[in-house]
Amino acid sequence: MARRPLVMGNWKLNGSKAFTKQLVEGLKAELKEVKGCDVAIAPPVMYLAEAEAALTGQSVIALGSQNVDLKQSGAFTGDISTEMLKDFGAKYIIIGHSERRQYHKESDEFVAQKFGALKEAGLVPVLCIGETEQENEEGKTQEVCQRQIDAVLNTLGVEAFNGAIIAYEPIWAIGTGKSATPEQAQAIHKSIRDHIAAKSQAVADQVIIQYGGSVNDSNAADLFTQPDIDGALVGGASLKADAFAVIVKAAEKAKS
Ligand SMILES: O=C(CO)COP(=O)(O)O
């Protein structure tokens, strides 16, 4: 089944007001002809207003966020709600990134709750999963990915993955320059899709599974040749308009 690819930039803790405006302008210029690939950027939440303003009047690049909290309003210092993200036009919301699981001790169950909150709000969860280097060496990659997915499957049901995104991001590949090979990533992506297909083939067929971890302008095209790699979640290379555009266009070409 043909799935429309999604390439998303996760800016992480980088940028400024000026940088946001400049990068969005650069992306708009580079990507204005793109038709066969969905594109999203997740700037730091502080700069959503600048990004929203700079994106006005075009429809190629959607806005996203790197995180969300569970509460809607009240005495929850520092939290950000789904409604606040919607207020800025954010659509694709990253949850369960390994950096949040590691530095903020976010559990599988907590991430699944965020998934549910996003679905309820009509936003698109981008659920990050992936194993550590040690788990990889111990042959536990599939087990870890399935456990992280099961937290959602077992609480919200398989239908929750309709219209949702999964980003397979092996932790050993993030920011290391050491991407998984296309074959390695394909094998895991297929196992993730098969795991969902065991509950519903139709849901598995439509779910977008992005690869993330040292994707750049020179390795993206090879990754996208694989049938179950439906796009990319890009960190470092999403901070440069030209490199990010090469990745988007590689996805568009490979999946057309
Ligand atoms: O964590 C990532 C995207 O969410 C990947 O980061 P890099 O592309 O910098 O390896």
Automatic annotation (TrEMBL):
Active site: residue positions: H97 (electrophile), E169 (proton acceptor)
E.C. numbers: 5.3.1.1
Binding site for substrate: N10, W11, K12, G175, S214, G235, G236
Cross-referenced SUPFAM superfamilies: Triosephosphate isomerase (TIM)
Pfam families: TIM
UniProt key word DNA-binding: no
Coarse class of the protein's main subcellular location: cytoplasm
Pathway: Carbohydrate metabolism; erythritol degradation; Carbohydrate biosynthesis; gluconeogenesis; Carbohydrate degradation; glycolysis; D-glyceraldehyde 3-phosphate from glycerone phosphate: step 1/1
Domain of life the protein comes from: Bacteria
Enzymatic class: isomerase
Cellular location(s): Cytoplasm
UniProt keyword ATP-binding, yes or no: no
Keywords: Cytoplasm, Gluconeogenesis, Glycolysis, Isomerase
Stored PROSITE patterns: TIM_1, TIM_2
Swiss-Prot/TrEMBL GO biological process terms: gluconeogenesis; glyceraldehyde-3-phosphate biosynthetic process; glycerol catabolic process; glycolytic process
A single GO molecular function term of this UniProt record: triose-phosphate isomerase activity
Cross-referenced InterPro entries: Aldolase_TIM (IPR013785), TIM_sf (IPR035990), TrioseP_Isoase_bac/euk (IPR022896), Triosephosphate_isomerase (IPR000652), Triosephosphate_isomerase_AS (IPR020861)
Reported function: Involved in the gluconeogenesis. Catalyzes stereospecifically the conversion of dihydroxyacetone phosphate (DHAP) to D-glyceraldehyde-3-phosphate (G3P).
Family: Belongs to the triosephosphate isomerase family.
Protein name (database record): Triosephosphate isomerase
Gene (UniProt): tpiA
